[in-house]
Amino acid sequence: MNDSYNDEAETWRYIGRWYKHLFNENERFGPSFLRLQELVPEASLSDIKAVLAEYHGGKRMSQPVVRKLQEVVDEFTRQTIDRIQREHRGDLFVNRCPACQRIVASPSAKQCLWCGHDWHSVTTNESNEARTPEKRRDAT
What we know:
mainly alpha; disordered C terminus; single chain
């Protein structure tokens, strides 16, 4: 099984895949060209183009600029996740493995790709019950 798990990155991936409709207009397009220029004034136009190109499999750029842009993207990601979780708490179901509490592949998944735990035989009610915040706290 895969060991390199990052909850924030997996939450972003999961929400982006299954809950795109909860993104506002700015979030839908991510940190756009102009927003990057505004947030990282020391980045040249060619640096920003390079970041966007690299994001899509393109060329390299200087490490200080890459680090600064990554900080901006990380903060954008955190703010977006926080807003969606705060404003859409009732609409958002982040499916977590009952064994390891990691985010699984989809809202209906019943097997964890991280630890291999399988809960296909557990009824939906039992499965959801086991993943309530109270149960998760008790498990830790």
